[in-house]
Amino acid sequence: VNNKHFISDVHLSDARPDTIALWQHYLRTGPQTGDQLYILGDLFDVWIGDDDDAPLACQVRTSLQQLTRRGVALYLQHGNRDFMLGRRFARQTGATLLPEVHYLTVAGQPTLLLHGDQLCTNDHHYQAARRRLRSRWFQCLLRLRTLHARRCVAANYRARSHNSPTPLSQMDATANAVLEQLQRYHANQMIHGHTHRPAVHQHHLPNGQVAQRYVLDEWHTTHASVWIDDGHHLHRQIIGSPP
Ligand SMILES: [Mn+2]
After folding, report:
1. By the 8 A CB rule, do 113 and 76 touch?
2. What string of DSSP letters covers 134-177?
3. d(Cα 34, Cα 77) in Å, to the nearest integer?
4. At what angle do helices 136-144 and 124-134 cross, to 10 degrees?
């Protein structure tokens, strides 16, 4: 039986060596040949471009290459931290880049995969910034800058987002945005990350159906969780650091 594995928000960064170790351990021991691994955004705490030659970027490229070469299908979605992941990275690692909302059958149910930041519609400030950052012209301008300049931009952006004035209550997914997406795609299940508030929510659709929304957790230094579809059910698995 081939399983589908869903994770998000690994936030790989030199500042979190334990999470990097946990991640490398997971890639070697988690998904098996024939399985599919879906990373629903923010694999990296920041991605400045596919030409990044920093040790972490190279290490992750190599480990993902090894994963796909042993027959694990790898699918990547952009998060708000790594929206610059591009076709070159996908080619080098054997990954497939997914659109920002991806429709897929999971555990027999019509399901949407997404990072989840687009659901936080009460945060108007963020949504405006998102439109700017995701625009083609902005990304072209950014790519024209040197790696060093982009590293500075990223550090700056990160410092500012850590001091965000937006209240926490505005940074969660809104029920309206969830229902809108589900109805647009005729789906009754959704998997996303981003909010770092792991949960399973129920939403009542206008047609009387009850939809399930699985919110993935961020990766921690000693543990992380993966949701796995074995073809019939979605279940949560906790993975820990190597002994
Ligand atoms: Mn995110």
Report:
1. no
2. HSHHHHHHHHHS-HHHHHHHHHHHHHHHHT--S-GGGGSPPHHH
3. 20
4. 60
39-92 tens-digit pLDDT: 999 999 999 999 999 999 999 999 999 999 999 999 999 999 999 999 999 999
And the tokens for 233? 């059910």
Q: How far is the CA of 115 from the centre of ligand 1 (A)?
A: 7
Contact by Cβ (8 Å): 67, 37 = yes
Assigned token pair, 37: 């691994």
> d(Cα 217, Cα 196) in Å, to the nearest integer?
5
171 Cα: distance to centroid of ligand 1 (angstroms): 11
Question: Could you give the CA distance from residue 47 to residue 41 in angstroms, rounded to a whole number?
Answer: 11
DSSP annotation string for 116-128: SGGG-TT-HHHHH
Token output for 90: 């996908």
* Whether pTM exceeds 0.90: yes
Q: Give the tokens for residue 45.
A: 């705490």
- Ligand 1: distance of its center to the CA of 1 in Å? 31
Q: What is the pLDDT of residues 167-187, one digit of tens each?
A: 767 789 999 999 999 999 999
User: Could you tell me the distance, in angstroms and rounded to a whole number, from the CA of residue 20 to the centre of ligand 1?
Assistant: 18
